[in-house]
What we know:
3 domains; Heat Shock Protein 90; 7 strands; alpha+beta
Amino acid sequence: MSRTRPRATRGFGARLLLTQALLLVAGxxxxxxxxxxxxxxxxxxxxxxxxxxxxxSETYHLEMxxxxxxxxxxxxxxxxxxxAALAVSVWFTRRVQRSTRRVVxxxxxxxxxxxxxxxxxxxxxxxLDRMSSTINELGARLEQVEGTRRRMLSDLGHxxxxxxxxxxxxxxxxxxxxxxxxxxxxxxxxxxxxRLRRLADDLGxxxxxxxxRLELHPVRVDLGGLVDDVVATETAAFETRGVTLRTxxxxxxxxxxxxxxxxxxxxxxxLRNALRHTSAGGTVTVRTAQDGTxxxxxxxxxxxxxxxxxxxxxxxxFYRADSSRTTADGGGSGIGLxxxxxxxxxxxxxxxxxxQGAGTGAxxxxxxxxx
Length: 371
């Protein structure tokens, strides 16, 4: 059984050069034919108008001399012009070929996982420069995503390792009789399993939210009343840390259609995030207001603040501005803000963050449509 060999295909540069060469040759042949057909006739007409005898030998020699000179001059001129044009075409084609090869090689590098590759601008036109910048933006974005993924896997491994190590150590101690199964032991085991369950629940919640599969049960909600309920629940934690938690309610009731449980989860995440980043003696304020057709909730703290390089990433999964902080020492799992933004967007709202930099505090703004 015979095999069909794949046809050898020319590269883009070769095709471009061949096309330009064919165009140049076609133009030169056309010019030569037009000159050879039209020129002698015109010259003969001018001789007749000048009163020369068309049957004389002088007229014949003049016409032959003109035709030969025209054809020779046209031939030489066309050969020189085609040669020069081909030289320019070869130079330009090589520049285009080098530029496209750099883009192709860069795309192959990106596909192979080398996201730090960059393509310089070719200077051959807006289209090629835009293609190069697009490849650069793609590589930069994928490099950022890959960094987030690696950090996420590292943090996830750490989040799992700590409670698992605690459970394993206590089980071994129980088997060896080092500790007794008393209330303290069970409290430690329960705390570790609770951390594992919370992490699993958070991962499931953020995946469902970002995929649009988050179940909502909206009802008519008084935003000020919801704030009071959540603040009352979180007050004890703030008092333990020595941080003041206060509210600044709107002058009138702010009514929205929302899932109170999910919205309470958002506010709880925002308050706990503010508490983690506010030192003893600091203040966290929850403000509610109306802004046209939207209800606005602000959680304002005077704590650590967020530096400009970290501000665009605070809502990414497992992102921490201080990578040395973990859940055990108050760093959070890095999922709460991601879940909160997804819940806000599921309600048709937005959740944003702003800060003037380190040491200036931070403000998180939740905007939701009013009922």
